[in-house]
Records
---
Amino acid sequence: FYEVHEVVVPHLGRVPITKGDFHALPKKVQKFIAFYVDYMTPRGIYICDGSEHEAHEVITKLMERGTLERLEALENCYICRTDPADVARVESKTFIVTKDKYQTIPHSKPGAKGGMGLWMDPDEMKIEMDSRFKDCMAGRMMYVIPFSMGPIGSDLSKIGIQLTDSNYVLLCMRLMTRVSPKVLDILGDQDFVKCVHSMGCPRPWRRKVINHWPCNPEKVLLAHFPEERKVKSYGSGYGGNSLLGKKCFALRIASNIARDEGWLAEHMLIMGVTNPKGQEFYIAAAFPSACGKTNMAMLNPSLPGWKVRCVGDDIAWMKFNEKGELRAINPEYGFFGVAPGTNWKTNPNAMASFQKNAIFTNVAKRADGMYFWEGLEDELPDDMEVTTWLGQKWKKGQPGLTSHPNSRFTAPASQCPIIHDKWEDPAGVPISAIVFGGRRPTGVPLVFEAFSWEHGVMVGAAVKSESTAAAEFKGKSIMHDPMAMRPFMGYNFGHYLDHWLSMNKPGRKLPKIYHVNWFRVNEKGKFLWPGYGDNIRVIDWMCKRLSGEAKVVPSPIGNLPEKGAIDISGIEDQVHWDELFSLPKDYWLEDAKETRQFLEVEVGDDLPAEIEKQLVEQEKRIAAM
Ligand code: GTP
Ligand code: SPV
Ligand code: MN
């Protein structure tokens, strides 16, 4: 049936293998490829091996075509401007497909907006998919990418194979996941997560290609099939829509695997913090997209004697071990970080991570071959010409944005100067604290501690945040983003809360749970907290809590630090404690009402009784304020 240098498929006949040995692939992988070759009809098949030679070949092609441009000021760095219609995740076109609707979304109540994920029936999705994927790779090369999420061979890791017709996607997958033939050796006859991606631009082009970025924004569709452990994505090359190892696999599919296997797949950074006494604590933190995970994971401490080391900046897979410790790994291999706002003051460690071997998407370029974006003005000579992400000329002081607000850098995690020695430890790191947070301009104090695991799960379920440019939403509305997972939930959110609650078993060392808000503003709209490196002051307090050195003052919403318990030495003039920690009663009455409304209506009958109990208790405490 199969020839050595070609795959024979019923629909197309002989399809050449441009690179790789098809026969050497595990049988299940061969079957997967053959099926999709027949369906998507590419002109050739390129089996990736993750080598440097391969990267070179792909980069050369992308530069010839004009998709990538070299950043001459740096070593092996490139800039890419996408079609301006393809710049963010498209939540309205992102579906979970299950036979039973309620496996995916909660039994919500009348009036629900359906905010907790989108479901589609398999038959309906098949029609949508067939109309897009049939022959979608005509005239294009199909890349086969074997990758591991997590250190290759770790018990906590999982293997995927992505098919894509985008070599930009291949290049980024090589930075974001571990692409290697070793993955196939380890895989053998086992099942893998099937990832199928197409830019949706078969040749001859039916749509005008803008910026050498073939895509199909009108037809974008992402479908997740948790039962089959499969993802299909069409029409977009933007990170979260196309690097399928990331949000699609490591969160939406993995959250299903995690529920079945008794662990957690979360939108969380992982960091190690060492206090001046030399004690190290590991913290995982969940903030919605573009709300500060990368910055916190690489925090440059403003307090003397502290050391921060980064394990991961976006996704955590966490599992209790036999000793009852919650062990976390970062399933990713690189950073896909928000560029604007990143500079040598706010995040020097991120800056250092992308000085070589990095890709910059939708940022601006300086005339001297350096990247540029909002936040780098201090380093920009006055007369330096800048080409914006839209190709316009710009100089310092002129109006307008030079970079898309969701422009990103993609860089190897290993290049981060403070990457943790244990970041690839197959056993993971032991988590002592879980932190939730969001952008909350008013009402929400800098930090509070949950009363218990159960209360903490409720605090996570109540996370809200101002919308950001990471998805398609316009304007700044406050949206619910429970556990920072709303866009990434792989199954019924009520069941997800049950799963979190079920982590509380005898013999387990449950992490303490916190809520932080770096984004509270005064009446003039100015941030009340300096943030970034000064966030170590809040972490310092959390660590003191963990080692039993700091006292708290109970409040209706959780335990607050005793006044003065957070070290603000050196920033006293910037920080007004009472303003930062005030709990306006009207605000919290309204917030409690709104949160109950959201959970009651959107999660409806699937809301765990324990969460309902926590809500009632919190409402009573707030009413008695
Ligand atoms: P995703 O990659 O989308 O998941 O985002 P993220 O959660 O990793 O957010 P990131 O750290 O990239 O920060 C997003 C934006 O928030 C950037 O523009 C930062 O400059 C800004 N930011 C991060 N931390 C702070 C902080 O402590 N205070 C303030 N004021 N802004 C911050
Ligand atoms: C996010 O939006 O949370 C990101 C970027 O980390 S993306 O990969 O697009 O999801
Ligand atoms: Mn993210």
Note: Residues 89, 239-240, 246-247, 289, 314, 336, 470 surround sulfopyruvate (ligand 2) (CB under 6 Å).
---
Amino acid sequence: TVVCTVVIYKTLENIPNIKDSEPAELQRKISVKKSVSSYNEKIDWHNYDTIRKDANRTGTGEQGAPAYLTSSENENYEALFKVNGFNAALSDKIALDRSLPDIRHKQCKAKKYLSKLPSVSVIVPFHNEHWTTLLRTATSVIKRSPPELLKEIILVDDFSSKEFSKKPLDDYLAVNFTKVTALHLPERSGLIRARLAGAKVATGDVLIFLDSHTECNVNWLPPLLEPIAQDYKVCVCPFIDVIQYETFEYRAQDEGARGAFDWEFFYKRLPLLPEDLKHPAEPFKSPVMAGGLFAISAKFFWELGGYDEGLDIWGGEQYELSFKIWQCGGEMYDAPCSRVGHIYRKYAPFPNPGKGDFVGRNYRRVAEVWMDEYAQYLYMRRPHYKAINPGDLSKQKGLRKKLNCKPFKWFMETVAFDLPLKYPPIEPDDFGFGEIRNLAVPELCVDSGYKERDQVVNIATCIKENNKKGEQNFTLTWHKDIRVKGKTLCFDVSDPNDKADITLYPCHGQQGNQYWRYDVEKQWFLHGGNPRCLDCDPGSLKLFVTTCDENSKTQKWRFENVNLT
Ligand code: UD2
Ligand code: MN
């Protein structure tokens, strides 16, 4: 087996020359195939002892069941929820080594993996993570990883201000663990540079990144490592399960999907492909990682230059690394048999550390370096990104050139081929906007009078002529509702009776009581599916809807700007 070990590790060390005439990429694939076929003994990596003991556990949160605080335990609930965005008081009542339900596909239970797998450094960046969720992350890694594969866990403290994050943490780790250390950064660096700091000191063949509020499930490690042992340019993500922020219940988010994004850069998912569905326990290709949880060989990570260290605080690094992996000769997979739970917070409790729109700047950097002409799709939805100064990009652009990375077009057509370019669709033009002026009494305009929700809209003297106070700027949007400028209040009519009031109500975009059209020829504002006309009483200044009447002049309105296309 000693000889074989050397062969396997060769794929991680260097690329042997097979045929000099072959392109480098093909050579790599051939060499990988050879080394694997020469040694491919597979074994069952399950730790049945731990599985058996876990099955017998009972208590708060055990087996991933939803848990609740008793009224006597409720004391710190609110204060702790507020600073964490999840039920940290409940976390304190749940064992650090709690049992989890094995919700893998049943084929995973019978799967074997290569007997020789690379060693691992787990890197966990954290900023003000709650004590027990942080320690439960480390504990679950230790508990469910084969010790011979796990070299170390590095908790990278991104300049936390919580008292226990420094010496008490170091002391706790020294007493309770042998493989877990904390690296304290001297200034707030953001999660991207925190991960880089951890990766720089890591000694394992493979780097695994985790968020600081995660729990690794049964046999999570071998499915992440095997594809990397077979090809060091493969990055593998686990399935990310949901730890519910209120009850700590552990459950699946869905049956699996391919990671993607929309053109506002929200993380989205694409359906599995037919061939993926045929092999529910096999890794499948995924265009983009969720970001927090993945395994990559240290060799490939550093060949790719790690992360762009110009990315600050939070956001965008998942796209940067995913694009880089694909465009620069690697591949990315999701492994269904590796599952890790993650607390999706109710809200992010951290204040902006005074760095402005760091997410926008990060996105701009990623778009400028990697996305070529497709960056325009992002800028179309977020025009203000074009005004953000991304800072110096020469190093990133140099790297892309040096590694001879493929164009983004290749990524879009080959990897994310089913990601629609109109996603989300750009909003159609509005039908019209501006003042709504009556024809019977042309100095009268519809006026919302700085009113709030549930208040009635009337008419008033048009501001333009008399320069009086008022609020007379409205938009007939493509949703077919009438919105008060600068507000998200819409003209709403719920009364079916004659001369029904127009009330301000939050816009829902679902038409119904907020459904309006403008008839350009008749100059009518029509409300509802069984249309009534906007009308007014110039004497009382009341506005209402009533049966349409071709002869009525008070039902005619001049809408200042009408978009006729
Ligand atoms: C998701 C990812 C997260 C990251 C982020 C985009 C998952 C499950 N999570 O958001 O890993 O890719 O998208 O950037 O895929 N942290 C620091 N310093 C900071 C801010 C955060 O160390 O200045 C730590 C934080 O304690 C946590 C990790 O970075 O361990 C990710 O932050 P998050 O949990 O707020 O991100 P999340 O899960 O909303
Ligand atoms: Mn997270």
Note: Residues 1-21 have pLDDT under 50 and may be disordered.
